């Protein structure tokens, strides 16, 4: 029997689509430098259907790509090797919120913010908060081991997944991890987190919920130069304060978000903006906020302000979190890089990145998780101009060279995907690459799960 | 009409979960980002003299034009508008006929005589014999069918008065004229008068603007911009002649359409007119008056798409309802489309029904009344609740606030 009819048999005719025109909607995720139209898309509605779909595809020897919200910035969900997209958007139920244990049991297509919304009544929250949280899914967060502004203090996705149900490459299913956190033997769950859908498909996850902080304070500080803002970041950390979040935007980035939906009203002539959030017990928060303000003052802050209300705080965060999308207002396309550097080298790194931009005549805006040295240079370009596209890709790799040279890594949180395969090979030793390969081969010997990713 | 520019779309995907059709189908081709991709493809096909891939046309056409995506998009990509522009172009190019419902609607809406006929029809549809006959018409997609499908959501209609005939003019303050709206005028017979009373209490002088026509929203939505423009011109001159400083709409869909006349007509008079349009919730203010005494009823607000997404109005309605003494209960996903969307429930009954079911299923049990601000939503949600066997009434917030004022002897 044919592939499509086999798929229709296991998920029903309404859950398989192979109209060429419509498949263009699945040719990309949020990384727009690669596009390949898949053979078909399937929407399984239950874990068993996911397993059945994987068995059908294994039987036909056709590769597959799992897709959640399609917000990956490294082409993780792009079907670069063709094959079938398994879209988990219909597996989107929150099955249980257990306020006593602090655990939510969710399907992979559940959107990140839905979890916190469901837990809010119990005073709990799901901490990892990628800026794409209104759209990215728990499955995709696991796939990319997503981080977010508040991961500085609370840890990334890996630290918040307790247990998961998995469908392996041959269609068999098992449960990995445990609610108690104890595992026998090697920790398969930790391997799966961040594996970009190359080792198995998550069909259900038990995620850790945490109490909301008793109090928090959000401070917005404007500086004349990026250096002063960077020194403030170092000063805050050196003072032993662990902010919940510590974010920076430079002038070009601010000029874009200020044209977007959430205008803060920043002064026009700024060099950089810091958004610092401290949380915890009320007394400690007051003390930390005062110290942050004092440190900023020592480094020439030109304007500093504490959020006066929850509405103001929400606005500041919405402004920051829509920064990538807002690039569409100042440029036809953008290419966001994601590299990590030791925090102490921030000013140096930014100067070097500026230099890369100058050499390639590419405007670069910077938005980043300053607290952990995770840079997000946004390279602005026009996708209709082939030469420009080539230059921007080259510049992107050079930005990562800067990170490596300063003792950092080629990805902080957006993954390797199709984008950074060569960069990963540069960062890791041959032996380390061989370990990676061996793991992949052990889980997926026929290379059916998301081929063309991570490895060259 | 040329394409509406969607080139600012950076493919970030942040809009997906706000899109009702994506929430129902999980299909990216029925999401805003998918529609941007498909529209690019379709415009190229049209430019090359073709009519576009039919499955892509269908996916684009299932857009409700609810504007939820436009509100959340960080790059302000006007996906809903782009879909409308595409429909208009294909109608012009003769690739599609306007839906029967739209052609019939043009006969009812736009004139008072037509509205009276529509009203009689709606009334007739409440009787069993009428309902059966109309249901048959619904199958072929006529406006007659609209009345039948929504018959279940109709309020009790008495007599044959159009709502605006009950409006009392006068008062002190800036001159405001009500935009009546076809369905509001013919079906919700008290709301216009109530709105006028609220405006007078808020310090406006309510004046008449005779000769006003349908706002044209339904026609723009299905691609009939010719009809929409003709009515728009009539409205601009009627309100100008009335000397109205403000134009107050009680139907979110009308208000949103009126606020876009500048774009539709592209002339100064229309732009000036547009600047004077407000939803009633933006004008009604009780200033220093103390809130009314508590009432026992718990109200859940449904945010009409064309109020929340198109006009950014949410809090105003809640504040007014709370001021009037009601207790509010938050409706999860209060701003997700109920499936009414103009003539959508006729052209896409399956999707409309799926959205209607989602909507009523999420209504908190504590709610005694549903408040909203658009006739389509009123009908759709009421019909959905009746079908689900829930007795909860659905009312325009203007009527709820007015009732509370009346109980206090203030109107
Ligand atoms: C505007 C914007 C801001 C962003 N900000 C951040 C940020 O602050 N921090 C951050 O870390 N990332 C950020 N990202 C990147 C992206 O949102 C994250 O990588 C996110 O985790 C992807 O989730 P998704 O549901 O969209 O997954 P997708 O893009 O659909 O998939 C991502 C990967 O996970 C795999 N996958 C998906 N579902 C499953 C499953 N059920 N089982 C196994 N594998 C699966 C896919 O195959 C793919 O390899 C941002 C992206 C955008 C567009
Ligand atoms: S329409 Fe806006 S929100 Fe949606 S993908 Fe495009 S840029 Fe992002
Ligand atoms: S207007 Fe509404 S239905 Fe249409 S794409 Fe946007 S969110 Fe979806």
Please summarize what this structure is.
Chain A has 456 residues and is of the alpha+beta class. Chain A has helices at 3-11, 20-23, 47-60, 112-119, 138-144, 151-154, 188-192, 226-238, 251-257, 282-298, 310-321, 323-326, 346-360, 386-405, 421-427, 430-443; strands spanning 16-17, 40-42, 64-67, 84-87, 94-98, 103-106, 124-125, 161-167, 173-177, 201-208, 210-211, 215-223, 245-250, 272-280, 303-306, 333-336, 339-340, 364-369, 374-375, 377-381.
Structure overview:
The complex is a heterodimer of chains A (456) and B (411). Chain A has 456 residues and is α+β, with helices and mostly antiparallel strands. Chain A is globular, with a radius of gyration of 22 Å. Chain A has helices spanning 3-11, 20-23, 47-60, 112-119, 138-144, 151-154, 188-192, 226-238, 251-257, 282-298, 310-321, 323-326, 346-360, 386-405, 421-427, 430-443; strands at 16-17, 40-42, 64-67, 84-87, 94-98, 103-106, 124-125, 161-167, 173-177, 201-208, 210-211, 215-223, 245-250, 272-280, 303-306, 333-336, 339-340, 364-369, 374-375, 377-381. Chain A has four domains: 3-87, Uridine Diphospho-n-acetylenolpyruvylglucosamine Reductase, domain 2 (2-Layer Sandwich), CATH 3.30.43; 94-211, Uridine Diphospho-n-acetylenolpyruvylglucosamine Reductase, domain 3, CATH 3.30.465.10; 215-325, Alpha-Beta Plaits; 332-422, Alpha-Beta Plaits (2-Layer Sandwich). In chain A, the strands form five sheets. Chain A has a seven-stranded antiparallel sheet, with helices on both faces. In chain A, strands 5-6-10-8-9 form a five-stranded antiparallel sheet. In chain A, strands 1-2-4-3 form a four-stranded mixed sheet. By secondary structure, chain B is α/β, with parallel strands linked by helices. Chain B is 52% helix and 7% strand. Chain B has 23 helices and eight strands. In chain B, strands 2-1-3-4 form a four-stranded parallel sheet. A four-stranded parallel sheet of chain B has the order 6-5-7-8, sandwiched between helices. In chain B, helix 14 packs parallel to helix 18 (305-311). The interface between A and B is large, with 42 and 34 residues. The complex binds flavin-adenine dinucleotide and iron/sulfur cluster (2 copies).
């Amino acid at each position: 029997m044919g592939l499509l009819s086999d798929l229709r048999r296991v998920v029903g005719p309404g859950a398989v689509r192979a109209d060429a025109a419509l498949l263009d909607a699945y040719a990309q995720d949020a990384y727009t430098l690669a596009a390949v139209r898949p053979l078909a898309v399937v929407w399984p509605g239950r874990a068993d259907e996911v397993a059945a779909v994987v068995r059908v595809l294994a039987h036909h020897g056709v590769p597959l790509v799992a897709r959640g919200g399609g917000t990956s910035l490294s082409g993780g969900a792009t079907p670069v090797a063709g094959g079938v997209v398994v879209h988990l958007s219909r597996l989107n139920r929150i099955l249980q919120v257990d306020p006593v244990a602090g655990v939510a049991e969710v399907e992979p297509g559940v959107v990140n913010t839905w979890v916190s919304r469901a837990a809010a009544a119990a005073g709990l929250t799901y901490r990892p908060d990628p800026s794409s949280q209104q759209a990215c899914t728990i499955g995709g967060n696991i796939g990319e081991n997503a981080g977010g502004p508040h991961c500085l203090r609370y840890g990334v996705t890996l630290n918040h997944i307790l247990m998961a149900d998995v469908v392996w490459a041959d269609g068999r299913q098992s449960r990995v991890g445990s609610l108690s956190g104890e595992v026998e033997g090697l920790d398969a769950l930790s391997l799966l987190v961040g594996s970009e859908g190359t080792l198995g498909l998550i069909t259900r996850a038990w995620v850790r919920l945490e109490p909301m902080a008793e109090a928090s304070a959000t401070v917005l500080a404007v500086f004349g130069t990026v250096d002063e803002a960077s020194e403030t970041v170092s000063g805050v950390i050196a003072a032993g304060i662990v902010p919940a979040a510590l974010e920076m935007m430079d002038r070009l980035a601010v000029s874009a978000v200020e044209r977007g939906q959430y205008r803060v009203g920043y002064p026009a002539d700024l060099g950089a903006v810091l958004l610092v959030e401290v949380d915890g017990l009320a007394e400690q928060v007051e003390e930390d906020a005062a110290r942050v303000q004092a440190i900023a003052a020592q480094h020439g802050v030109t304007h500093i302000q504490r959020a006066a209300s929850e509405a103001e705080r929400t606005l500041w965060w919405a402004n920051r979190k829509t920064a990538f999308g807002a690039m569409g207002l100042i440029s036809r396309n953008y290419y966001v890089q994601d590299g990590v550097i030791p925090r102490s080298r921030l000013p140096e790194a930014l100067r070097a990145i500026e230099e890369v931009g100058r050499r390639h005549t590419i405007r670069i805006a910077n938005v980043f998780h300053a607290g952990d040295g995770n840079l997000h240079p946004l390279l602005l370009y026009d996708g209709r101009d082939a030469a420009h596209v080539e230059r921007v890709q080259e510049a992107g790799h050079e930005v990562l060279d800067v990170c490596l040279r300063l003792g950092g890594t080629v990805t902080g949180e957006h993954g390797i995907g199709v984008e950074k395969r060569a960069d990963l090979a540069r960062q890791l030793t041959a032996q380390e690459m061989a370990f990676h390969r061996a793991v992949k081969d052990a889980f997926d010997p026929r290379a059916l799960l998301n081929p063309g990713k991570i490895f060259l | 009409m040329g394409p509406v520019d969607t080139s600012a779309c950076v493919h970030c995907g942040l809009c997906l979960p706000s899109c009702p059709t994506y929430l129902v189908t999980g299909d990216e081709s029925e999401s805003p980002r998918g529609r941007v991709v498909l529209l690019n493809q379709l415009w190229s096909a049209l430019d090359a003299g073709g009519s576009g891939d039919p499955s892509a046309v269908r996916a684009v056409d299932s857009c409700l034009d609810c504007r939820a995506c436009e509100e959340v998009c960080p790059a302000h990509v006007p996906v809903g508008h782009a879909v409308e522009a595409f429909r208009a172009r294909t109608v012009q190019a003769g690739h599609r006929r306007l839906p029967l419902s739209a052609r019939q609607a043009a006969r009812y809406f736009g004139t008072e005589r037509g509205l009276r006929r529509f009203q009689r029809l709606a009334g007739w549809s409440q009787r069993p014999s009428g309902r059966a006959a109309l249901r048959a018409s619904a199958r072929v997609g006529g406006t007659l069918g609209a009345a039948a499908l929504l018959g279940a959501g109709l309020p009790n209609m008495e007599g044959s008065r159009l709502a605006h005939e009950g409006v009392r003019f006068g008062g002190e303050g800036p001159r405001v004229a009500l935009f009546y709206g076809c369905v509001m005028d013919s079906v919700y017979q008290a709301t216009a008068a109530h709105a006028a009373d609220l405006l007078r209490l808020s310090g406006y002088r309510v004046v008449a603007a005779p000769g006003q026509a349908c706002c044209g929203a339904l026609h723009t939505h299905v691609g009939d911009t010719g009809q929409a423009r003709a009515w728009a011109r009539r409205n601009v001159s009627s309100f100008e002649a009335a000397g109205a400083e403000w134009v107050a709409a009680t139907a979110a869909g009308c208000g949103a359409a009126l606020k876009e006349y500048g774009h539709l007509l592209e002339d100064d008079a229309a732009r000036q007119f547009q600047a004077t349009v407000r939803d009633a919730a933006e004008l009604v203010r009780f200033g220093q008056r103390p809130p009314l005494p508590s009432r026992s009823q718990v109200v859940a607000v449904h945010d009409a798409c064309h109020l929340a997404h198109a006009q950014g109005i949410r809090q105003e309605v809640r504040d007014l309802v709370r001021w009037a003494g009601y207790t509010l209960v938050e409706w999860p996903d209060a701003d997700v489309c109920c499936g009414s969307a103009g003539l959508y429930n006729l052209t896409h009954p399956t999707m409309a029904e799926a959205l209607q079911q989602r909507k009523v299923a999420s209504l908190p049990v504590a709610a005694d009344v549903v408040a909203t601000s658009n006739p389509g939503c009123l009908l759709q949600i009421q019909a959905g609740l009746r079908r689900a066997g829930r007795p909860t009434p659905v009312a325009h917030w203007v009527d709820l606030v007015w009732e509370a004022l009346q109980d206090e002897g203030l109107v």
